[in-house]
Amino acid sequence: MNSTVTTINDIPVLGHDEAMAIAEVEYGRLLDTVDGLRPADWTQPTDCAGWDAKAVIAHLLGMMRLLADRAEFGRQISIAGQRAAATGAMRIDALTSLQVEEHAHLTTAELVAALRDTAPAALAGRTATTAEERADLYTPGPPFAGDWTRGYLLDIIHSRDPWLHRIDIGRATRRDINLTPDHDGRIVADVVADWARRHGQPFTLVLDGPAGGTFFSADGGEKYELDAVEFCRILSGRATGSGLLNTEVPF
Fold this sequence. Notes:
By secondary structure, the protein is of the alpha/beta class. The chain has nine helices and six strands.
């Protein structure tokens, strides 16, 4: 853990170029994780309700294909929207369920090969977006409140999602999770800044582990000490917390 105290206002905003560099590293680490899975690992249940490791990877493949091709983006969003309207499901749940369903027939070897083929195109699709496109506002819908910029979705959320799913897979399969201060610590610091903006209260936060650090907003607030990965699991709804840790952050 980095023992330096970082004031929240000193956490730099993730710009597009840095976000794409993070995305490239994260895709690489995800692929390394999937390459290392043993046959029995694929059926291990994860923290994502109803999903084993194979289902998580099927979702990630579907999301990469959505990001890689605008026609595929339109197709998936259209089907998910129709299903959500017909069933009352949240749109994001309809989308991710579709992604799992459409890749359930693939063997594990086919899933690995498809991820390797698709990751570069997904990264290219995200990288090629214009500043005007990233500035556009849209409404993600429940469980998320308010409007997002498309840049927040494409630059931030679409790296947080595979990052946390990589952790889901590691936890489910009891495999070591590759965490480093420069990559994972930067993702966690951005999550901390997002969390701080959402609750707006003073705090001191001490996060342990390779991705951790010490963060401060103002005197007089609560102090929290926990593992950096557990902090993100709590904010994502995968684990329970108290006080300001009940402020959820999108992943």
